[in-house]
Amino acid sequence: MNKVNLQGGDNNIDKSLYEIVFPFIKKNDFVLNLGCGTRFNFEKALKKKKEVNITSCDIIPCVFDSNIIDKFIVQSVEEEFLLDKKFDVVTFFELIEHIDKTDELLKNCFNNLKQGGYLIFSFPNLTSIYSRIELFLGYQPHILEVSNEYANFGTGIFGKYNNPENKTIHHIRGISNKAMKEMVLYYSFEIEKIIGFEYRFGKLFKYIPSLAPVNIFICKKK
């Protein structure tokens, strides 16, 4: 049985988020998905739409279907690594907020990406309209927990609504739209597009990512 990856890969991410990024992935591209988790949700969704070569990476060994994934690598994204080939696209979804060494993650993305290749990723936006309301009312933003055992400390009604089972999500980083813009530019990526996403209302925040609960960044290696 596969273990559960608590660093984001096993999040139940809506397939509609993945579908937003599919137009930036071409047929026969070599794709590296970091922090894939044990369910391979992104890989399954992508293979239904595109004929691509997928290498998946996670910190724990996983059993996988060779019809979906071409190669699996056990590797921490917080340690420097260079694979035997460079990729057309590197992706990670809802991962960066779970780790400490965020700089190492972006360096690894850059080093394993072809010149002009795409870096595509998503993360919860700390400056979303929801977080702003929570802070204004004196509550802890529900996306940034303070405990590894009890998720809803300080979140009040917002925590009960968004996380009624009080399950910890292990978010150790709170990242704003503005901070991420500056970070990817610092690590020599060009921002081609930023898309706002909301799991309940889909495209409501598409064109106002600074207020969206989730940001999707489409970047190119300079």
Brief synopsis:
By secondary structure, the chain is of the alpha/beta class.
Strand count, sense and barrel status of the largest sheet are:
7 strands, mixed
Structural class call reads alpha/beta
Judging by the overall fold, what is the CATH architecture of the largest domain?
3-Layer(aba) Sandwich
**Secondary-structure element string:** HEHEEEHEHHHEE
* Total beta strand runs: 7
Helix content: 10-25%
Low-confidence stretches: none
Oligomer: single chain
The termini sit apart by 41 Å
Count of discrete structural domains:
2
Please identify which CATH superfamily of the largest domain we are dealing with.
Answer: Vaccinia Virus protein VP39
Widest sheet, order of strands: 3-2-1-4-5-7-6
Beta-strand fraction estimate? 15-25%
CATH topology of the largest domain: Rossmann fold
Shape by Cα distribution: globular
Q: Which CATH top level class of the largest domain fits? A: Alpha Beta
Radius of gyration, in angstroms, nearest whole number: 17 Å
Name the average pLDDT: 93
Number of helices: 6
Structural write-up:
The protein is of the alpha/beta class and 222 residues long. The chain folds into two domains: 15-125 and 175-221, Rossmann fold, CATH 3.40.50; 129-162, no CATH class. It has helices at 15-21, 41-49, 102-111, 129-136, 156-162, 177-186, and strands at 30-34, 53-58, 71-74, 87-93, 113-124, 189-197, 214-221. A seven-stranded mixed sheet has the order 3-2-1-4-5-7-6, with helices on one face. Helix 3 links the parallel strand 4 and strand 5. The mean pLDDT is 93.
List the helices and strands and how they pair.
Layout: H1 15-21, E1 30-34, H2 41-49, E2 53-58, E3 71-74, E4 87-93, H3 102-111, E5 113-124, H4 129-136, H5 156-162, H6 177-186, E6 189-197, E7 214-221
Parallel strand pairs: 1-2, 1-4, 2-3, 4-5
Antiparallel strand pairs: 5-7, 6-7
